[in-house]
User: What shape does this take?
Amino acid sequence: MKLLEMNHVRKEFDGVEVLKDISLAVEEGEVVSIIGPSGSGKSTLLRCATLLEQMDSGDLIYMGEYAARTDGGKCVYASKAELKKLHRCFGLVFQNFNLFPHYSVLKNITDSLIAVDKLPKKEAEERAGRLLEQLGLSDKRDAYPYQLSGGQQQRVSIARALAKQPKLLFFDEPTSALDPELTVEVLKVIKALAKEHMTMVIVTHEMQFAREVSDRIIFMEGGVIKAQGTPEELFTTENERVREFIGHLSGK
Assistant: This one.
C-alpha cells in the first residue's frame, strides 16, 4: 500500500525553481533515504511533503487521500479539517530538535497529544513513558532540554514524533547538529525503528547508514531526482556524478 505519493511537484522561491517536476511514492514499511548535495532541494521536498511549505503545483496524496492537487495549473489544497486529519499520518524529526526549552521532556512529548489530539493526560503520559523507556530516556522525563546532550534531545524529538503514532516518519538531516559519538546513538534508534518496519523517509548525509538501513535511496541534485534504486544499485552505479558524490561523503 502506498502511504505517500507526490506527483509532478514544483516549488520556487523568488523566481528560483527549487523543485522541478519531482514524483515519488513510498510504500508501507519502506525506508527511503534521500541524499544529494546542499541546495539540491531535499529539505524543501520534505517541507512540502509535511505541509510546512505549499507546493506551486503537483499532487500530494496520503493513503489515497489528496492533501493537494493541481487544478487549472495551480495547486489547490484540501480543507483545513481534511489537512488536520491527514497531518496525523506523519511525524517529522527536525535537525535542530525543535524542543520547547521551557517544557520538561515529558511535557514536550505529551503537550500536543493533550492539546491537539485531545488524549486524556494519563493516557498521554503513559504513552510517553513507554517511548522514553524504549529510547533509553526513562530517567530524563523531568529534565529540561538544556540539561540533555544533543543526542538525548534528538531522541526526545523522535519520541515526540512517535507519540502521535504516525504511519510515516520523516527525518530531515537528523544527525547534522551532532558530533560523531552522538550521531551513532541517534542512528541506532533509527535502525531499530527500521527493524520494526516503521515507514521512514530520511534526508541524510550519512552514506554508510543510508546503505545499511534503506530499501531505496534517491539521489537529488538541482531540484530533480537524478538517480534512485536499492542501496546496492546506487553504491555500484555507473553514474559518474552519483559515484563521485557517494565517494566524497564516504571518504573514498
